[in-house]
Amino acid sequence: MDVKEKELVARVLAGDLSAFEPLVLPYRRTLFGLAYKMTGNREDALEVSQETLLRVFRYLGRCDLERGFQNWVIQILINAARDLGGKKRRESGRWNADSFLENAVSEEPRPEEVHDRSEIRGRIMSALSVLSEREREVFILRDLEEKSVRETAEITRSSAISVRVHLSRARGKIRNRLAVLDPSLPENAR
What we know:
Elements: H1 3-13, H2 20-24, H3 28-39, H4 42-58, H5 69-92, H6 97-103, H7 114-129, H8 133-144, H9 149-156, H10 160-181
Helix pairs in contact: 3-4, 3-5, 4-5, 5-9, 7-10, 8-9, 8-10, 9-10
């Protein structure tokens, strides 16, 4: 955690609520992007992001300033995404890959890119849908967010070995799923 973050945390904990916004503002896009990758749709990503910020504020006193603010916030986001996913599974009976794909949105592409983007997005979301919750978290953090194995382990509260195992399984499942979706892919591209 840098000095500025430590100062802002200290100010918020001392009762200066105006210090909270500059503390979390640099992470706004990162949080939403990660929440979107975890949930697959804009509305849930917004809900998870908002819940994350509420929890950060509520539990700021528990933050270990030596371990890093960003990883702590990401850990909270993952827990919020898990909570939302569990709530949705309880309401619907299970996680629905079709719903995940239907709700996936993208930026506004040019008309000629709509079909290609939709097809690629569908393949990626379909590939992610075959992963367990833990495999999806590890894959997103490690391969999409480019976190180190150590950082991923800290965020998911697991060991580095567990991260490597889940990542290996996730990559294998994604490779197999992509092979099913597009058998024309060369063997080394899978």
